[in-house]
Amino acid sequence: MNPINLHTTPKFERIMYKTIHRGNSYLHFKTVAKSVKKYLFVLAGICTIALSSACGGKATQERQVASKPQPILDSTYYIGYMNNDPMLKEHTDWAKKFYREREFRLGWFKNNEIVPQAQEMLTMISKAGEEGLDPKKYQFKDFTTMFANLEASKRDSAKFTEIQKEIDVALTSTYLVWASDYYRGVVIPRENEEIEWDVKRNKIKLHKALMTVLNERESKYSYASFSPLHPDYARLKSALAAYRKIQASGGWPKVSASSKLKEGQSAPVASSLKKRLGLTSTDSIFNAEAVTALKSFQSAQGLKPDGTLGSETVKLLNVSVDQRIKQIILNMERWRWIPKSFEEDYLIVNIPEYRLRVYEKGKERLGMNVIVGKTMNSTPIFSDKMENVVLAPYWNVPASIVKDELGPKISADPGYLERSNMELVDAKGNQVSPSEVDFASVTRDNWKYILRKKPGPKNDLGDVKFIFPNTNDIYLHDTPHDELFSQAKRNFSHGCVRLEKPLQLAEYLLRPVGWNMSKIQTTIAGGVEKHVKLKKVLPVYLVYFTAWADESGNVHFRDDIYGHDRTLAQQYFNEVSANVVKQKSAGQGKF
Predict the structure, then answer these.
(1) Which tens digit of pLDDT belongs to each residue from 145-203?
(2) Can you say whether the dihedral through the CA atoms of 445, 446, 451, 452 is positive or negative?
């Protein structure tokens, strides 16, 4: 072989020739060089792959994980997950419905990424205190760590899938626990015998609400924005925020009684009163502004707005802001028990307010004061449907009143029935002599007669009653004792609701079936009981709200006349405290 010409040989080969064996033949050298070039090419490829894996390869793998089909949940997974936690276990049925409707697909992931609604929900839960709820109750999973672990596992497909499933069920569980409290109530009346509330059930379906949150179905209700269902609730929420600001600033000052204080006078109590009423000027002059503000306060408390510092007014002025905050929270809770929405037309009586309102197409059309039951004969809280109006009604005396009140009088005085315009009859309407009845042994179960007062001006039901069949035997009716409506506190009845303007209500309800005021009054004057069926049944709600805010934002409070606030507070606040203790003892994290 000829020796290599280093001037015509490629630079790479010349270098290799000089660095290997100068005496070798050119052919042998080219063989060696080719092998080395091949080796270097392979080595370069390996280095490129390694470099890619160290830098851009991570993104490639993450894209590969993200592009994989999202996992499907096995029902045993989420059922087992929730059943292992007592707080979650009661919501397992909602989770079953949610995942079954989506054919067991994950709910909180899209293209293997967490959907924005997850953070929206967690943010909402962090502000649960604004709803009178305790955020700690819903912070039973450490989502910050779970989300970080998910991000870190994107290069491990199997691990990524397992964390995805855990996060999805944890988010669903968190939503169901929160939504149950927020939309159905912390203390659910039908599950708690101590809470007297038999209004028709709130039938919210939590799995459907969650699907709305995730934009998988539409709803006329505000689930997607995590907003309140009732404007009354929203106004109380605003009131709660305002009262908490007052609380944070130290509350309000005590006010002393001074019933003799007159407008224009100067007195130390005027300064504290002005501060209590939130006036800008807080000098010691009881001026016109202070009088007007005091009257507004009295009206909001259900008192006669006389502008004087009487004992009852001072008592209510000195209720602490802490107590008012709790009262607002308890009444927010009651709004969660109300059905998702009222019908277009309905009648509602707020018992502590002693007030009835009739709504038509969502607008108030008629309102009046009412008298409700005494504490010992409390008006029950329930809902039903009004079907009939009775003109010139008989009053059928309840067995309890026969035994405790009228029976002894009838036994002692044979002429009592006639003088009272009453009669005693059997089930067929036949007259029965009082001497045939042992009134002392009367009970609700064995009472087989009817003691009734005949229609007329002295009838305890007055001229008209309104029937909505119910097991409590409660109805709305007129009364001959109109003077009682001038009282600020009107709990005088045996349980039924007496109306201030019964004939106006009768006219409103019977107009669709051809009755006017003249016809109503003529029928009543005839003294013969007349039942008139309504054209359409009217939903009736007898409710119990001791705090509310009107459309102008003014907050109203009423006495807890039956002690229902006290009972609810024991259930509501104790349950919240118990949950907080439980969270701490379990050592569970926050998101």
Answers:
(1) 999 999 999 999 999 999 999 999 999 999 999 999 999 999 999 888 889 999 998 89
(2) positive
427-485 pLDDT, tens digit per residue, is 888 999 988 888 888 887 888 999 999 999 889 899 999 999 888 889 999 999 999 99
Show the beta-strand stretches assigned E in 20-129: 109-110, 113-114
Residue 552's Cβ-count burial label (10 Å; 0-12, 13-18, 19+) is exposed
- Residue type for position 16: M
Q: Are strands 497-499 and 382-391 parallel, antiparallel or unpaired?
A: unpaired
* Residues whose CB falls within 8 Å of the CB of residue 589, separated by 6 or more in sequence, listed in order: 139, 141, 142, 144, 145
User: In what helix (H) or strand (E) does residue 410 lie, and over which residues does it extend?
Assistant: helix 407-412
- Which tens digit of pLDDT belongs to each residue from 79-111? 999 999 999 999 999 999 999 999 999 999 999
CA angle 421, 422, 427 (to 5 degrees): 150
3-state SS, 190-218, equals HHCCCCCCECCCCCCCHHHHHHHHCCCCC
Q: Are 269 and 258 in contact (CB under 8 A)?
A: yes
Identity of the residue numbered 306: D
Does 586 score more than 80 pLDDT? Answer: no
The closest of 54, 60, 172, 160 to 113, measured between CA atoms, is 160
pLDDT in tens, 486-507: 998 999 998 999 999 999 999 9
Among residues 573, 576, 44, which one has the least CA distance to residue 323?
Answer: 573
Element (H, E) at 386: strand 382-391
pTM: 0.84
Which residues are 549's β-sheet partners? 555
Instruction: Quickly list DSSP for 420-475.
Output: TTEEEE-TTS-B--GGG--GGG--TTT--SEEEEPSSTT-TTTTEEEE---TT---
Within 10 Å of residue 481's Cβ, how many Cβ atoms?
A: 13
Instruction: Report, as residue numbers or ranges, the catalytic residues.
Output: 477, 496
Q: From residue 327, give the alpha-carbon distance in Å to each of 196, 228, 547, 557.
A: 17, 18, 7, 8
C-alpha–C-alpha distance, residues 368 and 385, integer Å = 19
Query: Virtual CA dihedral for 168, 169, 173, 179, nearest 10 degrees?
Result: 40
Q: Which two tokens stand for residue 367?
A: 């309102």
Q: Six-digit token pair at 430?
A: 């036949």
